[in-house]
Design brief:
Radius of gyration: 22 Å
CATH architecture of the largest domain: 2-Layer Sandwich
Helix content: 40-55%
CATH superfamily of the largest domain: PAS domain
Strand order of the largest sheet: 2-1-5-4-3
CATH topology of the largest domain: Beta-Lactamase
Low-confidence stretches: 144-155
Order of helices and strands: HEEHHHHEEEHHHHH
Distance between the termini: 56 Å
Structural class: alpha+beta
Length: 218
């Protein structure tokens, strides 16, 4: 399949997609992927995929290496099932996405290629925002005397670190992001959350964020 045909394939899908050759070099990125990842196709074409995206698994282990497991599977004719991973975008942040890989064979002297189709995993911020909005709507419909809990009535026991964790959580960060932002381990973040919830008398991150906003804790 000629490169121009590959370009047409990339342009024909509304799904964010990029293509690599048999050596892991980027052949192109389509418009939706440029918008999602922040890279211009011309700026990364010819560069190695692993150097641009620095892919990691969901446990933050380095996934993209010199010897690509996906290329090996495609070379052996094995189908690649969709999987989740984290890719570095142009801003330096990591994006969680579900990736599907399609092998494209050259039939007229062009290069073989691997198409990578991306579907962003729903961000924690979006989930928390939606759930917090639902809680706020429910709270707005409650009797006026039950609407707000006085500041400090349920938050008096929070430590300065727990206030910090709550503030970062309210900004839409995941537990991994909170750990990096505060310089503590992921386990420690989760332990803080376990202590925060009973102090605020809530049962989820969304409820904690909703409570914090309603009572102007952050």
């Amino acid at each position: 399949m000629a490169l121009v045909t590959l370009g047409r394939i990339l342009a024909s899908t509304a799904c964010p997609a990029f293509a690599t050759d048999g050596k892991g070099k980027l052949l192109g990125i389509n418009g939706p992927a440029e918008a999602l990842l922040g890279y211009e196709s011309s700026s990364v074409r010819g560069r190695r995929c692993r150097e641009v995206f620095a892919g990691r698994d969901l446990f933050n282990n380095l996934f993209c290496l010199e010897r690509c497991a996906l290329r090996d599977m495609v070379a052996r004719g094995e189908p690649v099932n969709p999987f989740e991973m984290r890719l570095r975008v142009a801003s330096g942040m990591m994006l969680e996405a579900t990736m599907s890989v399609v092998a494209v064979s050259a039939s007229d002297g062009g290069r073989d290629a691997m198409l990578h189709l991306l579907r962003p995993v729903q961000r924690l911020a979006e989930k928390i925002g939606r759930e917090a909005g639902q809680l706020a709507d429910r709270d707005a419909k409650a009797p006026a005397n039950n609407r707000l809990v006085p500041v400090g009535a349920r938050s008096r026991g929070l430590t300065p670190r727990e206030h910090e964790i709550l503030a970062v959580l309210a900004s839409g960060k995941s537990c991994h992001d909170i750990a990096r932002a505060t310089g503590i381990s992921l386990v420690t973040v989760r332990n803080h959350l376990k202590r925060i919830f009973p102090k605020l008398q809530v049962h989820s991150q969304a409820e904690a964020v909703s409570f914090a906003f309603r009572n102007k804790l952050i």
